[in-house]
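From the pipeline queue, job 12 of 40. The input is one protein chain; the requested action is below.

Action: predict structure.
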Amino acid sequence: MNQFPSASSRSLCQHLPQLEEQQSNQEKAEEAQRIRRLDVLMQMVVDLIESDRSLPVEQASLMVANARRLALALFPDKTLAFDLLYWPRLQRMMRRRYQMQ
């Protein structure tokens, strides 16, 4: 049995760090894109609810719930982060807009 790696496995080993770096860069780019989508979504929800004076509270609440559902679909393991970062902002906006307590 040959104890030395073949030329093709050595070549693969040499390129493995580059492949991992490319994969890591691609994953970072995809995550950055999801973050931008989430930021745009949340800003749109807030802007729409604050600007449309004819929007009933029930429909605004549904929009907030749908935004949360989409955020958790984009980042399934980040429920706590959503609850800490976005939820208080949405609650403040709803209280201010609809004079809720």
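Job complete. The chain has four helices and no strands.
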